[in-house]
Amino acid sequence: MLAALLGLLLPLLLEIPVAWFGLFIYAAVTHLEKISSLTTVIFFLVMLGTMAIGYFAPILGTKKQKVSFPRDTGTIFGGDKGLHP
What we know:
The protein is built from four helices and no strands. By secondary structure, it is mostly helical. The protein has one domain (14-79).
């Protein structure tokens, strides 16, 4: 039952934050002996940057190509749907 529930919910999560959360859990369990807190913070910033690029790149691309408003709006909502399946 738990495996079925996890199989239903895990695909809905974003891959990059889940990977960072796994790194954070590993760092916490090892009491920051294997992974330093600085490394964890650096990877957190990289995660935020990657997510921002993934969200804003389509928007900036449509602005540069001077796409009409309905298509621009579709890109924004479609990109959001792509980030959250």
